[in-house]
Specification:
- InterPro entries: Thioredoxin-like_sf, Thioredoxin_domain, TPR-like_helical_dom_sf.
- The structure is a single chain.
- The chain has about 290 residues and is α/β, with parallel strands linked by helices.
- It is built from twelve helices and five strands.
- The protein folds into two domains: about 110 residues, Glutaredoxin, CATH 3.40.30.10; about 130 residues, Serine Threonine Protein Phosphatase 5, Tetratricopeptide repeat (Alpha Horseshoe).
- It is elongated, with a radius of gyration of 25 Å.
């Protein structure tokens, strides 16, 4: 691995405090040093991906990340290896990895560095990152891609959707959310299924035509926005409901806003159409 152009430059330690734990306590993973980086860590990356975490005993968050990643490494049973760099004892290694703050993680795959993250993440999010690393590594001929494990409720919902049993799929997603309230996939699946339930059997052209004849009919406008979303008319649906938010008051306004937020959840969060609509909604409320 060649050193980056800014090798040797200082990195920001201003966010760190005094040590909060004994740095001599046993820690999971391999300790990266100047001596073993080329002789051990890089060759290991030819066999399986190595996730390198920059940490400091002066950062409680980074120590927790070491512990969490160590736990996950054991759960993945050798699919990847954890390595750690104590930026206080090995600052030259930290600089080689372009460390600016801790925790900071990179993956090394076939001796190539891939930046991952530079902040603390919960375990569930770390699993997503690790799965992406394993997938990328497998594409480069190192290791195997992770086998996707479906939750039982997700599998039940998918089977129900395939057979057109939308109500059964809705119940499965709700059961999943009752067990895991913060599961984003379950939230998205439920929103998509409820949209299918609301639009089942509707004729796009007739609904749009009827909504144009009755612009004050709230329920009809919501229905028109639904069919537009189903048929790919994201901007049309957002624009319809944004105009309705501006034209209504009280309970009706809240109802339209809630429906619009539900439609927002169905669109990729980085979609510029969604970003623009969110800004317009915020300006119309405040």
């Amino acid at each position: 691995m060649s050193l980056p152009p800014n090798f040797g430059q200082a990195f920001d330690l201003s966010s760190l405090t005094k040590p909060k734990a004994d740095p001599d306590l046993p820690m999971p993973g391999l300790e990266v040093t100047v001596e073993n980086l080329n002789s051990n860590i890089l060759p290991l990356s030819l066999v399986r991906p190595v996730i390198v975490l920059m940490w400091s005993p002066r950062s409680a968050e980074s120590q927790e990340m070491v512990t969490t990643l160590g736990k996950l490494m054991n759960e993945y049973q050798g699919q990847w290896s954890l390595a750690r760099v104590n930026i206080d004892t090995d600052p030259e290694i930290a600089q080689a990895f372009q460390t600016k703050n801790v925790p900071y993680a990179v993956a090394i795959i076939a001796e190539q560095m891939v930046p991952l993250f530079e902040q603390s993440y919960p375990e569930a999010q770390l699993r997503l990152v690790i799965d992406k690393v394993l997938t990328l590594s497998a594409q480069q001929g190192v290791g195997e891609a992770p086998v996707e494990q479906m939750e039982p409720e997700e599998e039940e919902a998918m089977n129900a959707l395939k057979s057109g049993e939308f109500a059964k799929a809705e119940a499965a997603y709700k059961k999943w959310l009752s067990r895991k309230p913060n599961e984003n996939l379950a939230k998205l699946g439920l929103a998509q299924t409820q949209l299918l339930i609301r639009t089942e059997g509707l004729d796009l052209n007739k609904v749009i035509e009827d909504s144009a004849k009755s612009p004050q009919d709230i329920e009809l406008q919501l229905k028109a926005a639904d069919v537009e979303i189903v048929n790919g008319g994201v901007e049309a649906a957002f624009s319809r409901l944004l105009n309705l938010v501006k034209a209504t008051r009280g309970d009706e306004k809240n109802k339209v806003k809630t429906h619009l937020l539900n439609l927002f959840a169905l669109v990729d969060q980085s979609d510029p159409r969604l970003i623009s609509a969110r800004k317009e909604l915020a300006s119309s409320i405040f």
